[in-house]
Amino acid sequence: MTNVEHYDAEHYEPGVSRVFQTKDETRAFYDKIARVYDLLAERSEQPMREAGLRMLAAQSNERILEIGYGTGHCIVDLAKAVGPDGEVWGIDLSQNMQGIAQQLAEREGLADRVRLDCGDAAHLPYESESVDGIFTSFTLELFDTPDLPSVLTEWRRVLRTSGRLVVVGLSKEGRQGLVMKAYEWTHKHFPNLMDCRPIFVSRALEAAGFTIADQSIEHMWVAVEVVKGVKGT
Ligand SMILES: C[S@@+](CC[C@H](N)C(=O)[O-])C[C@H]1O[C@@H](n2cnc3c(N)ncnc32)[C@H](O)[C@@H]1O
Fold first, then answer.
1. Best exposed site among 60, 93, 148, 155 by fewest CB in 10 Å?
2. pLDDT value at position 2?
3. Which residue of 66, 93, 135, 183 sits with most ligand 1 atoms within 8 Å of its CB, as the best mutation to test the pocket?
4. pLDDT at 227
5. 15 C-alpha vs ligand 1 centroid, how far in Å?
6. What is the spatial distance between Cα 224 and Cα 178, in angstroms, rounded to a whole number?
7. 91: nearest Cα among 58, 59, 139, 145
8. Cα 70 to middle of ligand 1, angstroms
9. Is residue 46 part of a domain?
10. Is 16 left (phi over 0), alpha (psi -120 to 50) or beta?
């Protein structure tokens, strides 16, 4: 495992753009777009999330945490997968996202097995080794590059030994065409419009001490990594 104090971002994340928005700006952005998020979100993201959920393969009775649950569609899928004796926890920075996801869980009749928190996932309000699995889609790439190791170490803390983390995220691996270059340019010059940027997902997980158990590089209009990291002893 990399020593978080001496994380060499240029080694693990070469050429990855920094994050230019503060957490308050990110929260305000998602609060503002929460009601229209499902209309704005790119349709091609859905198969990526589904690939991630298949890789996680949540089982009945498990407790699964979703980080950055947004409008809550994956929370619903996870709650169905863990069944009435399982639990799904979620944490998201945006209070408006929390409200929408909570309403969805209630409409689906799943609220009794769902607990949705609002907060910064850099510091999780959960006990160590308290969840069987963690799922996150299009959220890890919102954390700044030097923060990735400490954020992933925090997520690893709440996973039980042998538990798995599945990350679906925009990736610097694979084909990097003109569209990705335009995307990164927009992120750099208009971070308030394009808050995400591609990162090296699998390398970041490895650097934080996860064993990579499965990974694929998918292509929507940009490359997306779907990675499963396991917490060893
Ligand atoms: C791009 S959206 C993705 C939402 C959902 N996972 C999906 O795939 O549609 C990112 C989500 O992460 C949340 N988020 C951003 N920064 C966060 C942080 N530091 N801690 C927790 N959630 C965060 C945002 O509020 C937003 O709901």
1. 60
2. 46
3. 93
4. 98
5. 23
6. 15
7. 139
8. 5
9. yes
10. beta
Which candidate, 223, 180, 199, places its Cα nearest to that of 18? Answer: 199
CA distance 188 to 18: 8
164 in any annotated domain: yes
Nearest CA to ligand 1 atom 11: 68
CA–CA distance from 33 to each of 36, 73, 228 (Å)?
Answer: 5, 16, 29
Distance, in Å, from the CA atom of 75 to the CA atom of 66, rounded to the nearest integer, reads: 7
Ligand 1 within 6 A of 100 CB?
no
Q: List the chain residues with pLDDT less than 70.
A: 1-12, 175-176, 183, 187, 193
For residue 68 and ligand 1, the question of a CB distance below 6 A is answered with yes
| DSSP-derived secondary structure for 79-120 | HHHH-TT-EEEEEES-HHHHHHHHHHHHHTT-GGGEEEEES-
**Pocket of ligand 1 contains residue 139 by CB under 6 Å:** yes
- Domain at 162, CATH number: 3.40.50.150
Q: Please indicate, yes or no, if residue 1 is contained in any of the structural domains.
A: no
**What is the greatest pairwise CA distance in the chain?**
47
Amino acid at 168: V
Q: Kind of pairing, strands 114-118 and 131-137? A: unpaired
